[in-house]
Amino acid sequence: MSPHYSPNALPQCQNLQAQVDSVLDLLQQEPSLQARVDTSAVRSSLKKAIAPTFEIVFAGAFSAGKSMLINALLERELLYSAEGHATGTECQIAYAEPEQERVVLTFLSELEVENQIQTMSHKLGLLTNTVIRLQDPDYPEYGDTLSQYCTAIIQQEGGESKSERAKQASALKLLLQGFTDNQKYIDKTTNRTLSMEQFDFKNLQEAASYARRGSNSSVLRRVEYYCHHPLLQDGNVLVDTPGIDAPVKRDAELTYTKIENPDTSAVVCVLKPASSGDMTSEETEMLERIRQNPGVRDRVFYIFNRIDETWYNSQLRQRLDNLIGEQFRDSQRVYKTSGL
Ligand SMILES: Nc1nc2c(ncn2[C@@H]2O[C@H](COP(=O)(O)OP(=O)(O)O)[C@@H](O)[C@H]2O)c(=O)[nH]1
Ligand SMILES: [Mg+2]
Q1: Which atom of ligand 1 is nearest to the CA of 240?
Q2: I need a surface site. Which of 58, 79, 226, 320 has the fewest CB within 10 A?
Q3: What percentage of the chain's residues is helix, strand, coil (to nearest 5)?
């Protein structure tokens, strides 16, 4: 985000490591100071300052528009963005020279897919007395049956994103499809990692459109894009997360793990009150947990996304303005955006 971040650009920051080390050495030699100063905070700040990358995590509720916003920033259709289905894929986007653009894909394990199918079908009240085993000779039949049930639910509800239940059904349907299509890449217990060449993708765009397809993205655990764009050039790495309220618990936890990780340098909170009128309890908890990460410090950006929804709705607009006035009055970094 900051083009001036690179620490080596500033003369006083050259040889930062050596300088900090020598100060810490001096401290070691002075017993009376040693007990009073905690050097671990200094060491972790140093580590971050000299790290070649600056990790910017996009966090927020599912469907807040994180993926669409990143696509807009990078001026490319890279990430999966859609109504309804919350993908559990963690995406990381780092810089590459134009001729070295590539994608690295990490798949879920079969056990993980199995657990997800189980959780999702139970939520929908489908096959609740059946333990699903993807290697069972009966599985293809069960899989088909489940998928047909999902189609029926979607029809009943009047469309894929008409209700929470319809969204869950379409998510499950995509997962079943994803497993069928990608079975050859999915290992029993480990997460297989494959590079773009192993798929015969000719370029980043082809790989991205594969990963963006809902069914494929539902069996991908992690996607690393190496992409040519000036925003990424100084070592900025963008991280897209599944969302703090993703239907699968493990996916939601992934976002929290990321915002609390010491390697995270900044967090872009993509918030939804512009479309809902209020902060959810998950959003409030997220803000609190970000504030506890010393690596992030004041580098938290509050993005009120989907602002277009307030343009023609004065009541929503008023509620958002009140919220910002009351809860974000002292925040420097408040932005109103629209991915559209
Ligand atoms: N009106 C409006 N819709 C948006 C905006 N950003 C995203 N959306 C819609 O919200 C859906 C979810 O967006 P996505 O980027 O996948 O959300 P994510 O789950 O936070 O990554 C998409 O289908 C978009 O059409 C926005 O700024 N305004
Ligand atoms: Mg997303």
Answers
A1: 21
A2: 226
A3: 50, 15, 35
Co-location of 156 and 278 in the same domain: no
Q: 91 CA distance to ligand 2 centroid (A)? A: 9
Q: How many domains are contained in the chain?
A: 3
Burial label for 16, CB within 10 Å (0-12, 13-18, 19+), is middle
Question: Of residues 225 and 5, which shows the higher confidence score?
Answer: 225
Q: Which domain holds residue 158?
A: 111-184
Among 81, 238, 338, which is best to mutate for testing ligand 1, by the most ligand atoms less than 8 A from CB? 81
Average pLDDT, stretch 130-146? 91
- What are the pLDDT digits (tens) for 150-202? 999 999 999 987 888 998 899 899 999 999 999 999 999 999 999 988 888 88
313: CA distance to ligand 2 center in Å? 25
From residue 145, alpha-carbon distances to 22, 114, 148, 160 in Å are: 67, 16, 5, 18
Closest CA to 26 of 18, 252, 248: 18
Tokens found for residue 306: 């989907």
Q: Which residues sit with their C-beta closer than 6 Å to ligand 1?
A: 60, 62-68, 81-83, 243, 305-306, 308-309, 338-340
Residues 275 and 226 in one domain: yes
In a domain, 52, yes or no: no
Q: Is residue 51 part of a domain?
A: no
- Decide if 177 is inside a domain: yes
pLDDT digits (tens, 9 = 90+) for 50-86: 888 999 999 998 889 999 999 999 999 999 887 655 5
| Final residue of a structural domain among 184, 217, 244 | 184
User: Which residue's alpha carbon is nearest to atom 19 within ligand 1?
Assistant: 63
CATH number at residue 207: 3.40.50.300
CA-82 nearest atom, ligand 1: 23
Give pTM, 2 decimals: 0.85
